[in-house]
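User: What would this chain look like folded?
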Amino acid sequence: MLLIGPFKQIITCAGWPLRGPIRDTAIQPIEDAGVLINEGVIQEVGTFDQLNKMASTVEDLKTPQVLIPGFIDAHTHICWAGSRANDYALRISGKSYLEIAKAGGGIWQTVEQTRDATELALQVALRERIYRMLSRGVTTIEVKSGYGLDQEHELRILRIINQVNQQSSVDLVPTCLAAHIKPPTWPGDYRSYLTAIAEELLPRIKAENLSDRVDIFIEESAFSKEEGADFLKKARNLGFKITVHADQFSSGGSALGRIWHAVSVDHLEAINAEDIRLLAESNTVATVLPNASLGLGIPFAPARRLLDAGAILAIASDWNPGSAPMGDLVTGAALLSAYEKLSTAEVLAGLTFRAAQALSLTDRGMLQQGKLADMQSYAVTDYREILYHQGQLTPHRVWKKGELIYEA
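Assistant: Here's the prediction, encoded as structure tokens.
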């Protein structure tokens, strides 16, 4: 068995609650510690000297480091081509997201650029973004389609995500977001577009085993709650897990997701008090996307109120070329914590095991026996330094299933 250590501190996140607030008193660092690993799975976490007696191989650290679980980014759109710098320039000069979309910018602009890109170009761009996320401690990444918006291009994007996943040192979780917007070139109405996705595209995705997750954008610029309900019913009947872009600019989408037992509802900047209460009573994860608020110049999702109500709160980057081009998960989470007054424990939970819950993953997100040895270390002696530097402190090392895959 492999022993990695000694670490100055290990923060395991083990035993922390899945929902609701977490005080920092829950953080009990294990000092001068190590992790014992067998075939990529954690066997034990404890003091280094004790575990050293059980190890057959030791990866001996030469510098003081703090170890935490690898981050899980549960909402990204990182398979795209082109740029939306023009959209950003319009937004900071006063135009709204919806105004830009109605004028021909927004998502459709990225769709056209992505359709025009070669498969190789999309693979290269995706790998580059994955590596950047890996260098920031992210070991599992959800990746949506949604920049194809017809059957063949949506299938192409999902195939690319799966191909890159087979070659990647991190895990990718593909999600079908063909219901991103209705393409302006579609000859029918919104319902007919969603019907075509449900009855023609989703069976092909299922047959090729390209994804078991379906997402839909419920918003004025995308699809209504009534249209979304019919679509989600069909997707559920086909065996897909559900997630919903909800309550970004107007409320109602999170209620739809909750009714259809979505794994997560994501965004929530415009969620109302009643939907917060009902969401907190459900098992649907509330995934907040602070980088979208930063990119659009809108308020953050009410993370504090969601936690205090008892919700399962995950934090994701929403990395995309339009509303969240920064792509730095920790910077967004750190700024969210400052404005919403989230504890260090709540942020770490939202980036690890609660984010795993948003992806229906039970084998990662904590450093404890039986979990995957997905881990990252920082060259500091106090775990509080990680958020203190607001994304500017990056990992010294990252391990995936116990294998060292990144070193600064």
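The domain at 2-69+365-407 is CATH 2.30.40.10 (Urease, subunit C; domain 1). If you want, I can go into more detail on any region.
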